[in-house]
Design brief:
Elements lengths: L2 E14 L2 E14 L3 E5 L6 H8 L7 E6 L2 E2 L5 H11 E4 L11 H9 L8 H7 L15 H14 L4 E5 L7 H18 L2 E6 L10 E6 L2 E7 L12
Parallel strand pairs: 3-8, 3-9, 6-7, 7-8
Antiparallel strand pairs: 1-2, 1-4, 4-5, 9-10
Helix pairs in contact: 3-5, 4-5, 5-6
The protein binds adenosine-5'-triphosphate.
Amino acid sequence: MKNLIEFKEVAKDYQIGEVQIKALDGVDFSISEGEFVVILGASGAGKSTILNILGGMDTPTSGQVFVDGQEITKFNEKKLTEYRGEKVGFVFQFYNLIPNLNALENVEFATEVCKNHLDAKDILDKVGLTNRIQNFPSQLSGGEQQRVAIARAVAKNPLLLLCDEPTGALDYVTGKSVLKLLQDLNKETKKCVVLVTHNSAIAPMADKVIKVKSGKIESITINADKQSVEGIEW
Ligand SMILES: Nc1ncnc2c1ncn2[C@@H]1O[C@H](COP(=O)(O)OP(=O)(O)OP(=O)(O)O)[C@@H](O)[C@H]1O
């Protein structure tokens, strides 16, 4: 299958006073169209830095990143803003919904600027929130808020769905149902999902597992027989 994403020798350094932190150090990997990828590693390994660079929210110190044939590391601010707006859907640990907009308005607000967006109501149906679209975030459970956040990301009809610890604030059962939703959406829409986590137990649900350690790639594994989330226990 065609490569959708390529990281080539990507490095990210932070200078804090006298100390240089190598958040990423020569990171190479590729991701194919439609893949469900889990980026796994301990706290501080560099997972979020990879995701932020891939999402155009951060830029590397050196190296190249290609997405869909374009070198995003050559993009200026304007092109990066377009890229973030049109091509990338984000799902974060703490949902980041707008408190004074209801579920439907949260999704519509995000899709307003996207040319190829999908119908907000249809997507909220798909994530199981048909009867909750008028609710404000404070009137929704954590799991429901994360479903709204996923709907908001998916409704943009992006090229990639990037998820940073999407179940980090949820209990086991709710977290599992959110992972199942992401797995189902990946299967149905064939959109590439990249999910960052420290939970190695969920690795079997991925097509590809990229392990990160101290800013370097420790291993890249292809799961020949990936599993449905329902069949995984942790
Ligand atoms: N803005 C920053 N300034 C200085 N150091 C940073 C900055 N952002 C990240 N780092 C450092 O870079 C390294 C990688 O951080 P990163 O957030 O990517 O790790 P992570 O694997 O996502 O960790 P976690 O699971 O705890 O979120 C860490 O040592 C972190 O302290």
